[in-house]
Amino acid sequence: MKKRTIFYKKLMISYNVVIFSFIFVINLVLFKNIQQRDIAYNQQINRRMVNNVSEIFYGTENFISSFMSELYSDTNIINDTIFFLNNDLNTYLKNKLDKFYESDDSYYKGIEYLIRNSFSRNYLIESIELVSYNRNISYLFDRQNKIKEKQFSDIEMNENFLQSTEGQDEEILYVRKISNPLNLEAEGIIIFKLNKAEIDNVVKNYDEYFRILVLKQNGLILYDSKKNYYQQETDFLDVTKLLNTHQDNIAISELGNNIVVLGTIEDASIITKNKQLIFYIALIDIIFLIASEIFIFKRLKKMNNRLNIILDTMAHINVNDKLKRIPSDVQKEKDEISIICEKFNSMCDNLEEYINKYYISKINEKNAEMKTLQSSINPHFLYNTLESIRMKAIINNDKEVARMIYMLAHLFRSQLKEKDIITIKSELEYCDKFLELYKFRYANKILYTVECEEDLLEKEIIKFILQPLIENYFVHGIRLENNDNKILIKISHISNFIIITIEDNGKGIPKEKLNTLREKIKNEENDTQMVGILNVNQRIKIKYGSDYGLALDSEEGKGTKITIKLPYL
């Protein structure tokens, strides 16, 4: 079987284009949805992170307010604090011991007590520093219960937030003034240092794509979650760039004292953010693509093989006399290809039937021509001989014999000279002479009648379709012992047909023989014992088609009726 793959390749390419387009569109829509979901999710996380950081500052503000309220509400504590700021550490400790000794309390309630207690109440405070205006000295209290004394440089006393005086990383400092309640004069300040590590812990709970900045509205940066990540200082221009990015990537919370918490979403590709999800999508795409290719390959390969079988079968139509059929395996599936196969096989059946009929008819026609050629020698010889005898009878003045010889010679001459297609009138004249001869032979025992519509006389039919049937009556059907033998020839026109009937009152045909004869007429068979009837029937069907021919009715002892059906031409 020769392989033909053009149709297969075209379909394969078309299906692949459809599949890849489908996967591309689905992935495009999917990635778009992932991107939109990712943006919404990131915005939500960014706002949550800003809120969490803002809560730290709100909590610190509330704690400091509570601390200052407690400081001023307790006379012992505020007095102790003012004494602490205006004296050296040794003098303060001596005064502290004297006061504790004179009191009935189990512990000394002073500034140290308040500071130590504050560390346990708020984990966000890293250290608390007291600065004396009078002595220009600061005392730093840390969580390890240590006090660090140092000289204090000039600072902006009106600021609530200060930068580190040591020039290191930025620090988040809350500064509050301490005033004497008696004269309201400023005795110093107290500085609360916020532990940035706690803010770092909050930020670490989120992805690296998020960034938190705490800054004052004058541009002073108090905290940047990405400073260690970038290993560079955050400047005012960097903040400006962030503020000029897409507003959907920024979340802002304004605190008191002109402090702003700014949350931003760093730009990162959707693939970087959703590596695992992208991996699974790609895996599903590959599995779907492979499964689709295998399915389509098998389906198209099967279809292509069926088409190749059909094409190979068609290619052998002109090779053998026997028409090849498409195998039934190709027709198993209920589709258009199966319909084509069914129609093709049906066409081959009809074509083969037609070829067989045409072939058989041609053989029969050739046989008939051969018989006619063989038999034409004797009629020609007889015709010349009869003419000589007739002339001799005329010389001897035997007119009756001469007339009989003339009619016989006329029959032979008609058989030799006339064409195959003649008029009904000519055929009836031929039958008339034939019947006249039999009347001479059987004297007054025969009566024949011919009835024909006038407008049918010039209609053409094939010759010698009546004479063999009439002769068949004289050979098999006439009753010589009777004197009332009759034969009727009737020709009429019904619709698009010419109907010729030959009816006699002879012996009739036995029922069994009649059935056999009818079967042979139906199957267009030949029989050497029934040449007349079967030969006429075959000649009519060969000439005019299977819709025309003979019909035979007979009853034994009552006679026979032969009906001939011809086209009205």
Question: Could you walk me through the main structural features you see in this protein, from its secondary elements to its overall organization?
Answer:
By secondary structure, this protein is an alpha+beta fold. The chain has two domains: 1-315, no CATH class; 442-567, Histidine kinase-like ATPase, C-terminal domain (Heat Shock Protein 90, 2-Layer Sandwich). 54% of the residues lie in helices and 19% in strands. It has 16 helices and 16 strands. It has helices at 6-73, 75-86, 89-102, 111-121, 196-204, 227-230, 236-243, 270-273, 275-315, 336-375, 377-395, 399-417, 424-442, 467-477, 511-522, 531-544, and strands at 125-132, 137-142, 147-151, 172-179, 186-194, 210-216, 221-224, 250-254, 259-265, 421-423, 446-452, 460-462, 485-494, 497-504, 549-555, 559-567. The strands form four sheets. Strands 3-2-1-5-4 form a five-stranded antiparallel sheet, covered by helices on one side. Strands 11-13-14-16-15 form a five-stranded mixed sheet. α11 packs antiparallel against α12 and α12 packs antiparallel against α13 (424-442).
Explain briefly what this protein structure is.
The protein is α+β, with helices and mostly antiparallel strands and 569 residues long.
The radius of gyration is 65 Å
Largest sheet: 5 strands, antiparallel
Described by the principal axes of the CA atoms, the overall outline is: rod-shaped
- The portion of residues forming beta strands comes to 15-25%
What is the share of helical residues? 40-55%
Instruction: Tell me the number of helical segments per DSSP (H or I, 4 or more residues long).
Output: 16
> Which spans of ≥5 residues are poorly predicted at pLDDT below 50?
155-168, 229-233
Number of strands: 16
Q: Residue-averaged pLDDT, rounded?
A: 77
As for the number of domains, it is 2
Question: How far do the termini sit from each other?
Answer: 52 Å
Which structural class matches the secondary elements? Answer: alpha+beta
The strand line-up of the biggest sheet is: 3-2-1-5-4
